[in-house]
Amino acid sequence: MQTFWQDTRYGARMLLKHPGVTAIAVITLALGIGANTAIFSVVSAVMLRPLPYNNPDRLVALWESAPERGPRRATPANFFDWKKQNTTFADMAPFGFSTMTLTGEGEPEQMMGTRAGSGFFAVVGIQPTLGRSFLPEEHEPGKGNVVILGHDFWQRRYAGNREIVNKAITLDGNSYTVVGVMPAGIYPGWATTSGKISFDPNEQQFWLPMSFNAQWAGNRNAHVLGVLGRLKENVTIDQARAEMNTIGTRLEQEYAANKGEGIIVNPFMNEVVGNVRPALFTLLGSVGVVLLIACANIAGLLLAQHATRSKEVAIRAALGAGRGRLMRQFVIEGLLLSLLGTTAGVLLAGLSIDAIVKLDPARFPRFNQTKLDLPVLGFTVLLSLVTCLLFGLIPAWQASKPDLQSTLEQGRRVSGPGVGRQRFRQLLVVFQISMAVVLVTSAGLLVRVIGDCCKWIQASGRKEF
Questions:
Q1: Which one of 5, 153, 177, 299 is least enclosed by Cβ atoms within 10 Å?
Q2: CA–CA dist 400, 420 (Å, integer)
């Protein structure tokens, strides 16, 4: 342990002795690690962080599959047939878009929210943080004058007043009793005409109970409902798809309105992520390539710097320092560089994340939840260790094998680079050029994927209700 601290102090002195090389290496590392950390924080927030629901992996979205149109919303009659005939789902629930005008106290305000069918909150796996969810009888026609408020709307309009529960508010000129307030988070707002669920937080201001009369429940032509289902325990999504395909075939044979229609069972996380998954992974791969190029640059810098220290290394080797001890010295110096670069990279990532969150695309679910949390910091630490191995180990291996005879010749100050070092430098150049080509190719692919992503986000906008 004592020799380790000696090597650490000596390594710190060597870094301070060459401030120019140290500064360039730290800045290069900070840019690479900072970019990777910032992009990974977005990936973590949007795709990797668990959804705030009970067993979200069992939650799915169901769509009708129209010929040559892809997914579309369900009709009321088809929804009730799905719910009645399946054996793989614990429950299903419909939902749809709604607008209401709030009057009474304060300025009138148009609100956007969701009409939730019976069992909606149990299917999603979330319950109000204040009050309660809807009772079964409140989904009967004429008995649904109750409302659950969204957390952000409750905070903004009513300043987080907990006494709002069981109070009456006026919506579209009618009195509604507030029975609950939802916790902060993202929820399925409504099913768009493009076959995607909207998670726009501006459309999550309230929830009203959805009701069906006999005529409406039998309608097979109005494709207006989004449908969510919760799989039973020990039931796989493939089993659910197989059963729903059977149900779809049966309904197609029984009803002319279902001619050519199938049923799509989509994991709920796919609805949340949508078409942004390729864009995020492509972007993460691109900044990874940038980090690899940075590592190659730093390896070249260290190799050149180690060459200037060949006489020092030769003297230490002549005095009895083994190759392992010499390698440890150079690896420790690499770890110190990695520590400095990681610290600067985390600070840079924090500033970048603040700027990224301000973009806040409304229909990019959980984008505004991007932050430097423990998983992201763990990723950064792992990344710094990997980069240390990438840019520190091979130069250390090369530098720890000095040519004692040529280096210690009388009157010779520094020996020239050996064949092995020259070959390694050539490999670094080839690697950097190859990675640059990959990066340019990835950038072109990224532009195309982001274009498709933007089209999806625009298509997810409200076209009709």
A1: 5
A2: 12
Radius of gyration of the chain (CA): 31
In this structure, which amino acid lies at residue 68?
A: E
Is the pLDDT assigned to residue 455 strictly greater than 70? no
What the block records as the tokens of 328 is: 């440890």
Arithmetic mean of pLDDT, 136-149? 93
Claim: this prediction has a pTM higher than 0.85: no
- CA 106 to CA 420: how far, in whole Å? 78
Is residue 146 within 8 A of residue 177, CB to CB? The reply is: yes
Cα 354 → chain centroid: 16
Measured at the CA of 412, the angle between CA 408 and CA 415, to 5 degrees, comes to 75
Dihedral sign for Cα 199, 203, 206, 207, please: negative
CA distance 426 to 301: 13
Given this model, what pLDDT does residue 410 score? Answer: 43
> Is 91 exposed, middle or buried (CB count within 10 Å of its CB: 0-12, 13-18, 19+)?
middle
pLDDT one-digit tens code per residue, 311-335: 666 666 665 666 666 677 777 877 8
Per-residue pLDDT of 63-74, as tens digits, reads: 998 777 778 999
